[in-house]
């Protein structure tokens, strides 16, 4: 399980973001990356492969303005398969952070799983708790940030995304296309936050 804070480009073991989490729990939007925030291209690992889903940047800005944590939770089996390394994932997340900042939006942290239980190579061939549908990445994010799980949600393009949230009492929702901002606005209203 790995984490990258977006306040400063640091290694996964870095301390919390510069905007330190407060003691008061806040709702969080746990967002899948590929197929939810950016168009799915199959093992995206370079900036030229990133095209934001319609409404994705606006949705993140909406969440930021409302005081929600915005946390990306992503499986990155491409690392396990040897297609690219973990530094490549972190570099892409730093680029995404900068691109979003230029558009007035902020992701508070990226968490990714580089493992695969059956097809992983070497040390990445691990049956882990952090690969969705396992809840490990969300559990770690909730240890790092004061999250109110009852008012939070996870949104992704696969049933495994929602299953990760359900394991921790977080509402899971499936993104099936369309304007992401419209969907996030509705989910925020339904959360009661």
Automatic annotation (TrEMBL):
Residues 1-29 are annotated as: Disordered. GO terms for molecular function: metal ion binding; phosphatase activity. Its cofactor is Mg(2+); Zn(2+). Zn(2+) binds at residues 113, 115, 128, 130. The keyword S-adenosyl-L-methionine does not apply. InterPro entries: HAD-like_sf, HAD-SF_hydro_IIIA, HAD_sf, Heptose_bisP_phosphatase, Histidinol-phos. The record marks 131 as: Contributes to substrate recognition. Substrate binds at residues 32-34, 40-43, 74-77, 131-132, 158. Residues 16-29 have a biased composition (Low complexity). Belongs to the gmhB family. This is D,D-heptose 1,7-bisphosphate phosphatase. It comes from Roseospira visakhapatnamensis. The lineage of its organism: Bacteria, Pseudomonadati, Pseudomonadota, Alphaproteobacteria, Rhodospirillales.
């Amino acid at each position: 399980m790995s984490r990258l804070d977006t306040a400063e480009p640091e290694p996964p073991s870095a301390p919390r973001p510069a905007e330190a989490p407060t003691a008061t729990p806040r709702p969080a939007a746990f967002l899948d990356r590929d197929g939810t925030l950016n168009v799915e291209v199959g093992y995206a690992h370079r900036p030229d492969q990133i095209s934001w889903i319609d409404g994705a940047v606006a949705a993140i800005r909406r969440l930021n303005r409302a005081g929600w944590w915005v946390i990306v939770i992503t499986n990155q089996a491409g690392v396990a398969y040897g297609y690219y390394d973990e530094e490549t994932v972190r570099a892409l997340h730093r680029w995404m952070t900068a691109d979003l900042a230029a558009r007035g939006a902020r992701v508070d942290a990226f968490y990714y799983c580089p493992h695969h239980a059956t097809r992983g190579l070497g040390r990445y061939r691990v049956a882990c708790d952090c690969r969705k549908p396992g809840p490990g990445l969300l559990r770690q994010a909730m240890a790092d940030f004061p999250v109110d799980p009852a008012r939070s949600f996870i949104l992704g393009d696969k049933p495994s995304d929602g299953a990760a949230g359900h394991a921790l009492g977080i509402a899971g929702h499936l993104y099936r296309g369309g304007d992401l901002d419209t969907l996030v606005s509705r989910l925020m209203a339904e959360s009661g936050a």
